[in-house]
Amino acid sequence: MSSLSDYIRDIPDFPKKGIIFKDITPLLKSHQAFSTVMNTLYELYKNKKIDYVAGIESRGFIIGSALANKLGAGFVPIRKKGKLPYKTISLTYDLEYGSDTIEIHEDAFAPGDRVLLVDDLIATGGTLKAAAELIGKLDANLIDIAVVVELCFLKGRETLGSYPLYSLLTY
Amino acid sequence: MSSLSDYIRDIPDFPKKGIIFKDITPLLKSHQAFSTVMNTLYELYKNKKIDYVAGIESRGFIIGSALANKLGAGFVPIRKKGKLPYKTISLTYDLEYGSDTIEIHEDAFAPGDRVLLVDDLIATGGTLKAAAELIGKLDANLIDIAVVVELCFLKGRETLGSYPLYSLLTY
Asked: Where does the UniProt annotation locate this protein (chains A, B) (predicted)?
């Protein structure tokens, strides 16, 4: 198989002018590339006693649920405001312009639960940091944050501060 | 383990007054229940030579990607308008009030590809029918439609007409 990065497609000016979007759909479409991603993450975390994989809407669901099932862990969705049906706790965080809010069910974790947080990509890191803080609010134990793609020039790793981060591919 | 239906939570008046929402997050959270769902679907489709599992945003991503990975198939997302970054084909369909549009990448399938379409739930069936039609527009071969929950009283199966449908749990 060719390199994993061959399956990441650059889309100029998406979602807006001047941004080069990293499209992971070719990677997901290739069962070999998708399996390679999952097997790599599985090997990293299989002995970490992960109780739950938390995935961020929407592409984080794709990476997170397959990994949860492979690890024999439960899957917990973290969603945009108003999407989760049960009682939630939420966190609002600043964007370049304006703000955004994410939510998690208040019964998603019990104190001490071992949680792996995943998303497809880290850019500026604001959403992942907010998600990590939500997990902390429930007193769960955030074992690691894993993403497929890290856009290093946007310094998401700095935004995350002391939160851990593993990325498969860096740009 | 108790019955799968014990892991589906009723949420009254969500997303709006008078609707009882079937919340699958307790099922996803339980690694046993989630594995049972995945193993059941895997057994059903493992010999069907599925090339791709297509999942509908957002909860269909959760069911679809784990199943794709388990089957050794690729995963293809079907999304709301404007969310997919590359060239798309789209389909607009009627809702009770107004309409909605879903999209798929135009290179998602080649003619004859064997596709399993999945979502978490079928209600009136409008979205799943539109997704099945999108798959047909790309001349792919829709092998089956699989959902975790079927709300029979909303007659989604009738909406689907001649499209096939498998559901794990019926209400």
From this structure: Cytoplasm
